[in-house]
Amino acid sequence: MKKILTSALAVFFALLKSHAQSSAFTYQGQLNVSGTPASGSYDLVFALYDSASGGQPLAGAQTNTALVSTNGVFTAWLDFGEGPFAGGSRWLEVGTRPHGTGSFTLLTPRQPITAAPLALFAKTAGSLSGYLSTTQLTGMLPTTQLAGTYPGVLTLSNPANGFTGSFTGSGSGLTNLQASAWVKIIAQTPPANGDTNWFGPWTPGTQTAGIQEAIMSLPRAADQQHPGGGTIWLMPGNYYTYTNIYVHNSGWTTPFTLNLRGAGITACGITYAGTAPQTVVTVGQANTPSNLAFSMHDMWIASAVNACTNILWFQGNALN
Amino acid sequence: MAKVDLDHVWFGYWGSMTNANLNFGFSPSTFGDTAPHNLIPINFQMNFNEDTVVQHCHFTYVNGISWATDHGSLAENLFEFAGVGGAGPSNDWPPSSVYSLGAAVYCVEPGQTYNGNKGWTIRDNNFVSCSIPYYASPAFAGMVYLSQNDTFESPLSAPVVTEGTRWVFLNPRGYAGSQSLLLTNHSDYTKWAVAAIPAPTNLVVIVDLRAQTNSSDFAYGGTVRAKGFSGNAGGLTLTNAAGAKFQVLVNSATNGLIFVPQ
Question: Are residues A265 and B62, on separate chains, in Cβ contact within 8 Å?
Fold first, then answer.
């Protein structure tokens, strides 16, 4: 019987294929017969163990038949699946025989499976099993990793979740808004010149008796007003604080209308926030003809300063 | 100004509207209100206007509307503690200002000869604890203010304080007597309460069809047909077709009438 020995040389290569990565790899070795590199066809059988001797195979045996050996060098293609490679030490048991002849002769010792140098990087994912589950995520993700667009559905069910920053987009899907959060005039018919920000920016104020105030800065000079008129709706639960409101149309020849409409006299209104005696709303100008029409419906209007002044003041031509 | 339309608007000052008492409307302070009623809720200084409408509005703990407009309607409003209210707070307006009166409605169209362009509807307004519901401006020749179906809930002092323009109340309810007050001291509007209108006078007329009483004389140019007549005939003077006047006396013995040529 021929003495068959294999060398200790064993090199593993992960298979590079164009399709998705599989668990197969190649195994190369040199087969010697009686100390001389073998030639011809041989069958080789491979089994995977978790120890250098004894025990039960973890996977295999896999038989590679009719390997053509040149100068004893052979290459076998093995695939034990991903299961056996969970991080523990592994040994490969090899058996061989001339192609199709007799039984396999087991070669000793078993060959340890060692890491390829570049594969050592995988040790940093030693606790990762399969896909990374959300329970394995800890720490704070750098903000740079959160940039971009997230197309999936996102649910934040913890009431403690907060949001800081500006929000852009459609608010049509917002529901269950609290009255304390309603701090803006929700709709207005823009003036004829198309200025949709006619009444200027606003900032949330404080709450008084459960009513949220919105502080709005209005243009002071008559020339800063815009002709065309329109309707302003005030949302329930709010009042709007102004230093004063002037609705003038001096010199305008076209009719001008301004309608202030609230959602209920007990729900929304206007108040004056100044400190000096001042009229809350002044409409028209003294001794000045105009085509100005003004209406106010379903709201309240008050002055925060109980001084000798007006709340609503309408002015027109000289009286006769 | 062309037009003003105020409907369902509540006027007040902020301090009175945000107290903790929820019993009265939008939580105004109730009878404990002692702050001066300074704020003029609406100041109309309009002319050539098409219309000025104030209806279904509520005025609480403020001074009064200042009303100067050619055409307007003031209807179905509630004035509660407006002007000088029931709790008695005054205001900080100087005595020389008409607003120091503390009325709920100041009709301040300036006096002049009536030029036909005044059209006012004043009706169905409720005054709760308003000492002076109406103020009328100085003599406005040819013009008269008419208010219908108003309710005056006590305490109050008079339905109107006038400086000379006539005021007719048609079917007022709840007014305290028939007294109205003529303002004679124009340099100090706080002295309105000491100058009652001497009766009889046509300056302030109260016609109450429900109570069937009238407060003042009437000049009637038509024919009066009545089933009966009661009253003091001693003051009755008749004129025949020729223009001769007869005084009617009552015979105290027979209760018969004696016609005495004049």
Answer: no
